[in-house]
Amino acid sequence: MTSATAAGASPAPAAPRSRKSVTGTRKTVAALFLLPALVLLGALVVYPIGYSVVRSFYSSSGDEFAGFDNYRALFTDDGIRTALKNNVIWVVFAPTVATALGLVFAVLTERVRWGTAFKLVVFMPMAISMLAAGIIFRLVYDQDPDKGVANAVWVGVHDTFAQSSAFPKAHPGRNSPLAPDRGGFITSATVRAGQSVSLPLVGVAPDQMPKSAKKAVRAEPEPGKITGTTWQDFTRGKGVGRLGEVDPSELGYAGMRVEAVKDGRVVASAKAADDGTFTLPAQADGARLRLPAANFKAPYNGVDWLGPSLVTPAVIGSYVWMWAGFAMVLIAAGLAGVPRELLEAARVDGANEWQVFRKVTVPLLAPVLAVVAVTLMINVLKIFDLVYIIAPGSSQDDANVLALELYRKGFSEGRPGIASAIAVFLLLLVVPVMLFNMRRLRREVRR
Question: What is the pTM assigned to this prediction?
Fold first, then answer.
């Protein structure tokens, strides 16, 4: 029986031998390869986090246990509360605007030939460090229109519609017939028809006079009218020129507006010619002559971009300039995977381009948009460089964020306990967002 079975049946296959590597089991090899990374992770991540958590419960000196006092300061210290409020503004607006711009750029550049070149230009700021970008935008937002690009453009647009005066510093000199009146100047005595009136002023530098200004001329009296001259009553050189009289080298105030005021009401007005002369009709008889405040309005100097009220939006604008390209590239990659037949089917059904974008493209890109927005949220929670560099010292408190407040508390004010509490609080804010992003990425991989 045994022999028959042995003769008729095929022999059972031999059990496979376990193959071992030269260095031992495969788990050991994996552990050896991971060991350097684990050591670095522990030294650079785990240990600092653990130390910060422990340090956050001690006083500034580190000798006394402070309990939760440092964490209470997060909600009672004015500087930290301002930083927390600004962080909320950053998290709400910066990722939203950058993602929206990235979406618009990605969709629009898909249909143009030069789309690749445009994407390259938009993405290029990502190659610039935060330090360099901060210096660039500190200059862009400079208050002086001759230095700051933002104010140069703003002032140019403003002056197109509301030209500022050429005589902001003009004022009456000695023995002048003019007296101050509501930002302008007015004569103390009334004028009569057929009279020639002198309205001398000083205070305008020769190089600041209008280019159209010509040598002043004394106006000749005209019957039934009131004439006069308004001019720069100043001649260079000691003892040169006669005060209150038109001298040959003196210039007229070209374009100066003159009003005749009677009983508090303007009854007539005129604009001075290039030589400073003006003529008013008979209605001005018995009125006082006024040079209104509009003649002396200071030049428009633009917007105080880095002032207390606008510094945070200004810094957010620089961040969007840097990161809109990042959002655009990721969204463009997701857009490349959108089935074109769905878009064409929507167009065939009668949908216009806006409806296709809003009801087909955006819903299909929702996972990508969520990943981009969450990634930028994590990034803005740690923002430090741009705020520290762009915001001047006078408004840095108003632009404060948690990462900057951490630096100030730890290094400038010497309060490492509170700085550690801020660091732990930032970690607690970032971790849930990171976990959400990781879960979403894993879900996309499984699909």
Answer: 0.74
